[in-house]
Amino acid sequence: MKFFAEIDVMPRKEILDPQGKAVRLGLHNLHIDNVGDVRIGKHIRLEVEAESEEAATSTVDDACRQLLANLIMEEYSFTLHTA
Amino acid sequence: MEATNHLPVDSPNTGSLPTVDVARKLGLLPDEYDRICDILGRKPNFTELSIFSVMWSEHCSYKNSIVWLKTLPRDSERMLAKAGEENAGLVDIGDGLACSFKIESHNHPSALEPYQGAATGVGGINRDIFTMGARPIAQLNSLRFGNIDLPKTKRLLRGVVKGIGDYGNAFGIPTVGGEIYFDDCYNTNPLVNAFSAGIVEVGKVAKATSHGVGNPVFIVGSATGKDGIHGATFASEDISEKSTEKLPAVQVGDPFMEKLLLEATLEIIASGHVIGIQDMGAAGIICSTSEMSAKEGFGMDVNLDLVPTRQANMQPFEILLSESQERMLVVVQKGKEDVIQQIFDKWDLHCAQIGTVTDTGRLHFYRWGQLVADVPAHDLVLGGGAPQYHREYREPAYISEFAKFDINTVADVTAGELKTVAEHLLSHPNICSRKWVYEQYDSMVGTANRSTNAPSDAAVVRVKGAGLPQTDKSIVITVDCNSRYVNANPNTGAQIAVAEAARNIVCTGGEPLAVTNNLNFGNPYVPEVYWHFVEAVKGMGAACSRFETPVTGGNVSFYNQSSDDGPVFPTPTIGMLGLMENPDNRMTLNFGQAGDAIYLIGSTKDDIASSEYLYSFRGVKASPAPAFDIEEEVAVQAAVKQVIKDKLVVSAHDLSDGGLFIALAESAMAGNVGFSIKTDAGLRTDAFLFGENQSRVVVSVSAGQQAAFEAALSASGVAFSQLGEVTSGDFVIDGTTLMTVADAKAAYDNALGTKMS
Amino acid sequence: MKFGVVVFPGSNCDQDAVDALTLMDQEVVKLWHKDHDLQGCDFIILPGGFSYGDYLRTGAVARFSPIMNEVIAHANRGGYLMGICNGFQILAEARLVPGVLLRNTSQKYVCKNIYLKPESKDALLTAGLEKSAYKIPVAHGDGRYFADADTLKQLNDHEQVLFRYCDEFGNVTDEANPNGSLDNIAGVCNAAKNVFGMMPHPERAADIALGNTDGRLILEQLLKAVLV
User: Fold this and answer.
1) Is B254 within 8 Å of chain C by CB?
2) Would you say B691 and B604 are in contact if contact means Cβ atoms under 8 Å apart?
3) pTM attached to this predicted model
4) Domain A2-82 has CATH 3.40.50.300
5) Distance from C188 to chain B by nearest Cα, in Å?
6) CATH number of the structural domain spanning residue C190
7) Which residues of C touch B454 (CB under 8 A)?
8) Is C85 a catalytic residue?
9) DSSP code at position B705
10) Is the pLDDT of residue B10 over 70?
11) Buried b or exposed e, range C12-27, using 16+ CB within 10 angstroms
């Protein structure tokens, strides 16, 4: 079965996100003043061929842990759906 | 205010006072815990215990190294600040200007998160420079990695180089040189040492101090998060599998913030209203408040509620110990708060008054309306109450084994082998071109790097920057340490590191002035490791005295060892500052034109000990340090200085890794020419071509200058010999063409890039 | 002619641009990004660096800095405007020149000397350049020029390509392309030919003390053209 994984990788919440901070400054330059905290991460879409949803979940989880997210600094979450 | 005999509020977790067991977990010895109780006249609460644990960690207190560091030469007429007195060394370079320079390690953070570890290392060393009011103008770095064929090494190298590049490039200070070595001993513990040099007008230097009761204390720059809490303690332990679990929130560098902080800091210092300023690096707020207060015996009352934080409800110890980057502590003249505030507003930076200077000599920290810590500043700091230890040391058994090496057990190279050895060395990761690395660094921003289009043994950087007066002077800077030599003989090896740094500066046309050192060693509680340290400091001290290059400061990094690989090679990296008064005195390493004569200044010995050839081609790991005599070195450098000054040479290049052959090849490749030389029948061919005995320099001389050159050398009394001449493109040894300059470049230029791709 | 160099937070080649123009005896001032006053400058330069840390996209945040209102109005009036490196990225984000700058193909920052072949025969910056190749430093992570086919045709048809990366003899080759730019494009101008953008840094090769003055030759040609 073919699954699609929608993965979000975000800087861990206690970790400084310089990019988010600079973007917030830029928004304030545009007078979009009511924006508070900004945090910027990555969205990754994967196609997974697997026997079951459990197997697909485990594959995506592995991919996130080993490569897609740096667990020292980032956390990840994902959703799975079928084609 | 509460009386000091009244116990401050306690540990957030337990409600009871922490035990000696908790102290041990924080890295304090039972004796140290008792000492804290004596100092306070009562038992410390958790916040206070945390304070002592970081301030008395090796990283902040140098407790296991200071008794030996004090033996290093620290004075010369040019010193404007003594070692340890300010954030970095300060050297008078004339014309009313001073150079502030320092090297610092970020080894442990880089081992776990190479990108951020290296980036924040670059950030930290630059803050040390600009907190003194000096505008950084150039950076170097000294890196050590494990076996380059391991995937882990490649990951670390990629991360570290990208981290240094991304931070330094955005910050906008050129990275103009450095060194990289690979050896299995660094497989678990890479070394990342970052060097920065800046320029300040004499008399406009900012100090890391505090005085004047009632003067406001500001925290400026980034908000405070939970980054790197107990990071300083972390840097004071061996790396183990468990380290990753213990890891505090990784410090993330923000070079953009650092650039703003640089400009704002230089502006507030120029305003004349700053009493004292200190960067917040290891141990954060507690380190800067205590060190600045202890300097002149003042105290501070600080309300931690006023510290801008990234997270709500941070505990007092978290705020005090946070190692969030890009922050400064500033004491300002009372009444001038607005001036400071306006400057920080201009640069969109946080600037918050968090306390005032007192005359108590104590630090009072408040949180949520209560006194949470009450500690004497003096007792926290190096030179005050921080402990100083004499550690046991013992010569390791291998040293005498190494000394037994007999050159006759190694067969000399045959004529047929020469090309193989040459190619092995040209493409060896410890020798080949560092292009793959340095092209990722902005080496030209600031339009002051004079080495971009004219390569030399040390980097030449014009003294130039926004707001600085005009001058013709350049600084000449280098970082050097062959740790294989130091491992073979720490005393001689450390002397060689100093000598090589000085030789590089002399070969570039500069005058060596002063040293900053980065002492990277294993666990100081291991007597054999501590012996490395003691011997290296002795050797360094002797050499620095002889070269009249005092040690202005630096950094000690212990615990570079792992349970699997043991300690790293002892690596006392030398960062040396030299000066070039007259721009015309600069010398480059590239050969000029075919027909120029090639000479060797210094004498070659039948010595292959600790050479890259012996170590990696012959596979002999056990041999002593290469031959070195400091008086011979001094004489050779004096002779080289003279012939450069008298404009008798076209090029000068010192012999180091790979010996004579590599020095000739590098000079030839840089000039896109070749060379033809004769070997010495009285010496082994391998020793002549690939041996690394010290105190030698290859120069080239135009035909018209040969007589004058020979006369000058003869008068100096230093040994010299004509090796041969520059050719149009062939590398010729004893009449046989070994390869062409194009062949050599093919092996040399892309070897590292190929390994990394 | 009065030059103004805009200083954004994170600019780091502003002083280098000022120094190069000062060496050439030009009047030059720095313009702070929060101001709304071009101080009577005739020629505006957006310098290199990492404005706003290059976060989000290079040039994306700086493009909305307060002074950009005046800079854009100046360009639209036909005033001279030049962006170097990060300045070029800001011009592209502000749509003042066609195309975009993407991450280098190597995915790595690159700093080295490269060679530039002047292309446009009628743009002020290049029309009078005579050498076949100019040795100029590049220093960027996001310098891969890209434009769609229609835009590319427009650039070529209207002599809007200023420079292409080449070897030291002026041959435009793949090996000479440091970042994967489309057709080796290193710099372009707008259709009206008063706004110039280029990734390489001529201001870094303007001082004899650094051993390379090819950048100065380019800037001198520009001065000759705009001062008439």
Assistant:
1) yes
2) yes
3) 0.94
4) no
5) 23
6) 3.40.50.880
7) 211
8) yes
9) G
10) no
11) bbbbbbbbbbebeebe
Residue C112 DSSP one-character state = E
User: pLDDT digit of tens for each residue in chain A (83 aa)?
Assistant: 999 999 999 988 878 888 898 889 889 888 899 998 899 999 999 999 999 999 999 999 999 998 898 887 889 999 999 87
Torsion C30-C35-C41-C42 (CA) sign: positive
State residue B138 phi and psi, 5-degree precision: -160, 150
Active site residue C203: yes
From the list B211, B126, B201, B207, the residue with the least C-alpha distance to B164 is B126
Task: For residues B700-720, give the mean pLDDT.
Answer: 97
Q: Please tell me the total count of domains within chain C.
A: 1
C197 vs B329: CA distance, rounded Å: 41
pLDDT of residue B567: 94
Q: Does A72 touch chain B (CB under 8 A)?
A: yes
Q: Which domain holds residue C63?
A: 2-226
Q: Which helix (H) or strand (E) holds B110?
A: helix B107-112
User: Does the ipTM exceed 0.95?
Assistant: yes
Predicted local confidence at residue A14, as pLDDT = 79
* C148-203 pLDDT per residue, tens: 999 999 999 999 999 999 999 999 999 999 999 999 999 999 999 999 999 999 99
- Out of C55, C139, C207, the one facing B445 most closely (by C-beta) is C139
CB–CB of B553/B511 below 8 Å? no
CA–CA gap between residue B360 and residue B378 (Å, rounded)? 11
Q: Please state, in angstroms and rounded to a whole number, the distance separating the CA atoms of residues B540 and C53.
A: 41
Task: Please name the amino acid found at residue B640.
Answer: V
C169 to chain A, any CB pair closer than 8 A? The answer is: no
What pLDDT digit, counting tens, does each position of B71-102 carry?
Answer: 999 988 898 877 667 778 899 999 999 999 99
> How far is the alpha carbon of C194 from chain B, nearest alpha carbon, in Å?
27
pLDDT in tens, B236-286: 566 554 544 445 667 889 999 999 999 999 999 999 999 999 998 888 999
Q: Neighbouring chains of C at 3+ CB pairs within 8 Å?
A: A, B
Task: Tell me the C-alpha distance between C146 and C100, whole Å.
Answer: 5
CA dist B677 and B734 (Å) reads 6
- Residue C60: phi and psi, rounded to 5, are -65, -40
Q: Which of these is catalytic: C13, C41, C85, C166?
A: C85
